[in-house]
Design goal:
6 helices; mainly alpha
Length: 113
């Protein structure tokens, strides 16, 4: 469960760094962008290019605080169904995808902030 929260924290961090979208984010958008990362976050190995494409796209999708909060909540809900996420892989995912986040990804992310 803690690993799943880490995935949510990762997404929130990605959204906070550099939002550039003009439309509201939906849970479908978030799921689509992050889906290519699930196997990597569970098993490690080679980082799939579509995963990083999704990480970068998600980072750029949220323009407003409500968009970022929505994405965070969507990931928290989705993460409850994803077993065996490795927190260390989630923590390092943004950097491996060329996305700079100025703070450590944590399982204690509060989507309301």
């Amino acid at each position: 469960m803690a690993g799943l929260k880490l995935v949510c924290a990762l997404a929130l961090c990605l959204l906070v760094v550099s939002p550039t979208a003009t439309t509201a984010i939906t849970c479908g958008d978030v799921s689509t962008k992050m889906s290519a990362c699930v196997r990597y976050l569970q098993n490690g190995g080679a980082l799939p290019r579509p995963c990083c494409d999704g990480v970068r796209a998600l980072n750029g999708m949220a323009r407003t605080t409500p968009d970022r909060q929505t994405a965070c909540r969507c990931l928290q809900n989705a993460a409850k169904t994803i077993p065996n996420i490795k927190p260390n892989l989630a923590e390092t995912l943004p950097g491996k995808c060329g996305v700079n986040i100025p703070y450590k990804i944590s399982t204690s992310t509060n989507c309301n902030r």
